[in-house]
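Regression check, uridine-diphosphate-N-acetylglucosamine case 333:
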Amino acid sequence: MKILLTGGTGYIGSHTAVELIQAGFEVEILDNLANSKIAVLDKIAKITGVKPKFYEVDLLDASATDKVLRDGRFDAVIHLAGLKAVGESVEKPLIYYKNNVCGTINLLESMKRNSVNKMIFSSSATVYGDKDGIKLTEDMETGIGITNPYGETKYVIEKILMDVANSNNDFEVTILRYFNPIGAHSSGLIGEDPNGIPNNLMPIIMKVATGEIPKLMIYGDDYNTPDGTGMRDYIHVVDLAKGHVKAVEKLKPGVEVYNLGTGEATSVKEIVKAFEDVAGKELPNEVVERRAGDLAKIYADCSKAERELGWSTELNIKDAMRDTINYLRHYEG
Ligand code: NAD
Ligand code: UD1
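Current build output:
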């Protein structure tokens, strides 16, 4: 089976490419390198022995996208390309809607023109909006209380995919709602590139560990959680990548939605402790005010993916910390 992986040089995409290749899929990558580096292709080759064919194409360029689809004769598309910085999306909403929504529409039009009917889409737990402290299941209402344009783009794209599936009985789409991906490949060759100013917890911890940021600001310790800090469902990126392999193998007509998480919630303080235990040194930190828009506890019910995809996580927080530290040791910039 031949797969086009959009966003394949990015953090989750590069790990997904590795797992797909190792599972025997033929993978080609489309990315505009807006938030990734071409060197990732050599790293994928080093891990798998296969260097995927690469198209440096922006999904906003409809004719270039069409050419990739026309020439490639793909059986399925795994669509991860998108902009993902929450804060930036508040400042530059039009760029986010244009890139994520219009890019996806161009891709869907090209798929239609070239008779590619199978798609996996990377969505986010953010579509559940302001639901706090309950295990989230796929049938719960989405779209209420989303606090930023990035999250809205995921919600809108999910709607578009559902409408396309309604209009075309041959269309097969699986929406994967990721919870909080962390960690890196055990080889240390690929991981989340710590370039730029991060907003998410693990990239910030990485920068504190390397001394680029003096300390971690813990956003609030007065939440209704056992230690007062926010709790999230952190999933190792390799487990997440494996979820894509299962999802593409199980594609069927219509729309399916799956949460990809662990089913467990871990607090910020527990993450800090896990990092310190594995690193063998203290991580400077300070508790500050809550961050606007944050919730106390967000975690997934993953029983649907377990039941229907035969997928469940194999790695834990300690593995993610070990692999992150190993990746930092290998990091070449
Ligand atoms: P990433 O930024 O590392 O990867 C995204 C890739 O898409 C980048 O390589 C970027 O260059 C590319 N891209 C962006 N716009 C493009 C365009 N118009 N045309 C072609 N390529 C384009 O991010 P990631 O963490 O690997 O996330 C992958 C996907 O998963 C994204 O859609 C993201 O929204 C989604 N997601 C991520 C998280 C997370 O916490 N990392 C959580 C939920 C969902
Ligand atoms: C954030 C976004 C969410 C997006 C997701 C993945 C917000 C409000 N939510 O989710 O829309 O889908 O990233 O990109 O931005 N924390 C600290 N100090 C820090 C950073 C984070 O204490 O410097 C805490 C947060 O308060 C939270 C936890 O760490 O409790 C995880 O934060 P983060 O990694 O930003 O992910 P989410 O908030 O889950």
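Comparison notes: The CA atoms of residues 70 and 136 lie 39 Å apart. The chain has a mean pLDDT of 97. No diff flagged against the previous build.
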